[in-house]
Design a protein that fits this description.
This protein has four helices and six strands, in the order βββαββααβα. The protein is elongated. Strand 1 and strand 2 (about 15) form a beta hairpin. The strands form two sheets. It has a four-stranded antiparallel β-sheet, with helices on one face. Strands 1-2 form a two-stranded antiparallel sheet. The chain has one domain: Alpha-Beta Plaits, CATH 3.30.70.1290. It is an alpha+beta fold. About 35% of the residues lie in helices and about 20% in strands. The chain starts with 6 loop residues before the first strand and ends in an 18-residue tail after the last helix.
């Protein structure tokens, strides 16, 4: 596993990590071991080419793929997964024509996907409480949220 890091840019610091799940079209069982190995290589190439996409984990089941991807605030989750699905589909079809035949020459991925954010040092409940308690005089001890491990 590759661990997420704080990305520092000229006007922001971020740690945006997304969990995506992408099913194969028709939920076909196309992700054999050779196809899985090719998919991982393709994703490594995507990370090299696009400096705003960093694959932290890739988990492949027979009919869908889980991605843990870190990116920057300049790119939406839709843009990230659209880029990943487009490139992986073209390359897998080129390297494994049997997959294209299995899908009747159509699309590799379903049109939809699952997306969720992932927290590095905290969770939704902690942040919700922190935001909810802002400015309240009787919120108990003053605790400053620490960013960047400092």
């Amino acid at each position: 596993m590759v661990e997420s890091e704080y990305w520092r840019e000229s006007h922001n610091v971020s740690n945006l990590v997304y969990h995506f799940v992408c099913p194969a079209k028709y939920r076909r069982l196309i992700f054999t071991e050779p196809v899985e190995e090719e998919l991982v290589k393709i994703c490594e190439g995507i990370s090299e080419r696009y400096d705003w996409i960093k694959f932290l984990e890739i988990g492949v089941d027979r009919d869908h793929v889980h991605y843990l991807i870190q990116s920057t605030p300049n790119h939406s989750p839709a843009e990230i997964i659209r880029t990943v699905k487009s490139i992986t589909a073209r390359r897998i079809y080129a390297e494994h024509p049997e997959v294209k035949k299995e899908l009747w020459g159509g699309e590799l991925w379903t049109d939809g996907y699952f997306a969720s954010t992932v927290g590095k040092n905290t969770n939704e409940d902690v942040i919700a409480r922190y935001v909810r308690e802002q400015g309240k005089p009787d919120c108990g001890e003053y605790i400053q949220l620490k960013l960047f491990g400092k």
